[in-house]
Specification:
Blueprint lengths: L2 E10 L2 E11 L4 E5 L6 H8 L7 E6 L2 E2 L2 H4 L2 H10 E4 L12 H11 L4 H14 L15 H13 L5 E5 L7 H13 L6 E6 L5 H4 L2 E6 L2 E6 L1 H6 L1 H6 L3 E7 L5 E7 L4
Parallel strand pairs: 3-8, 3-9, 6-7, 7-8
Antiparallel strand pairs: 1-2, 1-4, 4-5, 9-10, 11-12
Length: about 260
Amino acid sequence: MLFELEHLTYQYEGVTAVDDLSLAIPEGSRVALLGANGSGKSTLLRLFDGLIFGQGGVAWFRGQELSEEHLGDDAFALPFRRTVGIVFQNPDVQLFNPTVFDEVAFGPLQMCWPKIEIRERTAEILERLRISHLKDRVPHRLSGGEKKRVALASVLVLDPAVLLLDEPTASLDPRSQSEVIDLLVEWGGGAKAVITATHDLGDLEDIADRCFVLDRGRLVAEGSPDEILKDRELLQRTNLVHQHRHRHPTGELHSHPHVHGAK
């Protein structure tokens, strides 16, 4: 099993973000973590990435406890960091180098790759994400969509076996959204794990084989994309759909459920 959580709990300043959460994610899974803002999706990704640690319960990664103590041990931490990569919703939190090229090359440099391999791999991933023309630009001066692509490139360059994504298509134009979705679908030929936190249901069947629905830090449903999308009561209850209102020519006001990001 890739990740296992048992009764995991996490709080921010007394506010519970993850509440007695238990779930299991097999190797090579394509998983969507679904929920409205504040449901605990982003916190869960940070727990998976070992950036924060549960204050109750236990988390495992490939059978080893994912704890602060273990991540303080290079024998566990180095292979884990090579294996698991995360792309945050806000790219500004992970961009800090003077140029885009330096940003994307930073991870391989820390892993002590040969210089020629770093240059080749960085150039390859910049081309793949259509940002080669930005390689000499300062990251924090880019547009929101450009920053998102650079942040994604800085993780994909390491070819992680597990990719954690927080709202990966946020701030992207429709064409870029489609390209990123295609990239996720193709990533690793289906052999690698991609765990995506999102409230956008429009591409759900493309990016995931399994869904976990969160509400106020609790797991409230689990199923295939088809099963989740058909459960309109669940989607309304967890604020993944809203009531769309429109007025008929007769003056009658009508409302019906509307899925966020539906195709």
